[in-house]
């Protein structure tokens, strides 16, 4: 996963990530008592929701900082550090659940990752996931890209935001039958007054690595001003999220 999290700031100002994820939980069809992995569990907010539905839950994340919060909040639960492309568990799973994770993983790694996930599931096990879909936060990324270009810089597109048509074949090639897929717009209200800047500083760090802070602030302010007419409404910032959801079953 290509980000170092500000776990405290994420918990305080970006709880919408797991709040929206509660709706994704409803896509799971595994019965109570099923072994479910919450892959990319973050601070554990959705792991506990899965537990409340009667599942045997393991939370897993690559971020040590996030796992520290999860373990402190839910000491009765199991949380492990692991990578989506390489983790191994002793027993096969009934289901893998993942919210707002896959877009952080390089596009080139997805065929391998999906085959790996299939290998961790029982036959008939399900993969339920939501992540950024094609066009997600495009107003923000396009404005930043133009601000970079104006200064002779290249804005790297580090996220993977596929269409259903791009991603469903990857699932099928990995041994899954796609039973549900949807791509939809979800403009997402930010909690803070400086919602645009705070969102960039939380989720879009990679393009600014090694950059002078003054130049970084200048670029973000320029992109913010360009985006305000479209993304600022009724005293709040809304990031133009697009989400993609799948439920797929292992053959």
From TrEMBL:
SUPFAM superfamilies: S-adenosyl-L-methionine-dependent methyltransferases. InterPro entries: Methyltransf_25 (IPR041698), SAM-dependent_MTases_sf (IPR029063). Residues 36-125 form the Methyltransferase domain. GO terms for biological process: methylation. GO terms for molecular function: methyltransferase activity. It comes from the Bacteria. It holds the Pfam family Methyltransf_25. Keywords: Methyltransferase, Transferase. The keyword Transferase applies. This is Methyltransferase domain-containing protein. It comes from Anthropogastromicrobium aceti.
């Amino acid at each position: 996963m290509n980000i170092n999290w500000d776990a405290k700031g994420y918990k305080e100002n970006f709880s919408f990530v797991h709040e929206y994820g509660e709706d994704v939980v409803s896509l799971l069809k595994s019965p109570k008592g099923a072994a479910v992995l919450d892959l990319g569990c973050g601070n554990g907010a959705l792991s506990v929701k899965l537990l409340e539905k009667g599942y045997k839950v393991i939370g897993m994340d690559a971020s040590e900082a996030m796992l520290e919060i999860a373990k402190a909040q839910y000491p009765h639960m199991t949380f492990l550090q692991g990578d989506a492309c390489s983790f191994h568990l002793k027993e096969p799973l009934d289901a893998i659940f993942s919210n707002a994770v896959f877009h952080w993983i390089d596009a080139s790694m997805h065929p391998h990752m999906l085959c790996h996930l299939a290998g961790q599931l029982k036959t008939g096990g399900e993969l339920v996931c939501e992540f950024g879909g094609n066009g997600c936060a495009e107003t923000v990324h396009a404005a930043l890209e133009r601000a970079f270009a104006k200064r002779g810089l290249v804005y790297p597109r580090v996220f993977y935001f596929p269409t259903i048509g791009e991603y469903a074949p990857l699932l099928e090639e990995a041994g899954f039958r796609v039973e549900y897929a949807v791509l939809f717009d979800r403009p997402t209200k930010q909690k803070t007054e400086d919602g645009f800047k705070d969102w960039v500083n939380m989720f879009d760090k990679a393009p600014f690595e090694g950059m002078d802070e003054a130049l970084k602030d200048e670029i973000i302010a320029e992109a913010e001003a360009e985006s305000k007419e479209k993304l600022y409404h009724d005293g709040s910032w809304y990031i133009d999220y697009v989400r993609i959801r799948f439920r797929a079953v292992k053959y």
